[in-house]
Inverse folding.
């Protein structure tokens, strides 16, 4: 129970720190894919690939794919489809497993060139990381 509370607190803190500024928000370019690779150094042996694909509607993300790999605990691929982009360029999505929230992503398109935000997951252990996905 304590681990879940700590994970929830860490996720809330990360989300608050990554909250976008409306002054820097934008809608993405249509027909564009934004990508980022997050590599946790310092012996953590963790890597995540993030891909955000925009179709013909700039107010909807056609597909978000996050692939997280942990050297000692395998990997997981999470896919979200048709994620709404709210005024100001913000978006968020969650996935649950066995009734528990196991993956979430939230972010903002800071320009037509990229999006920043955070991902929380439980592939290896409760963990959150920031991202900046670019064209």
């Amino acid at each position: 129970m304590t681990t879940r509370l700590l994970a929830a607190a860490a996720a809330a803190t990360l989300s608050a720190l990554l909250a976008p500024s409306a002054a820097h928000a934008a809608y993405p370019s249509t027909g564009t894919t934004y990508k980022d690779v997050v590599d946790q150094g310092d012996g953590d042996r963790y890597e995540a690939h993030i891909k955000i694909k925009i179709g013909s509607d700039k107010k909807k993300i056609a597909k978000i794919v996050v692939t997280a790999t942990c050297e000692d605990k395998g990997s997981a691929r999470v896919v979200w489809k048709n994620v709404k982009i709210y005024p100001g360029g913000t978006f968020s999505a969650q996935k649950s497993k066995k009734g528990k929230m196991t993956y979430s992503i939230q972010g903002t398109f800071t320009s037509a060139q990229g999006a920043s935000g955070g991902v929380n997951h439980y592939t290896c252990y409760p963990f959150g990381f920031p991202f900046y996905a670019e064209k």
Summary: The chain has one helix and eight strands. The two ends are 40 Å apart (CA to CA).
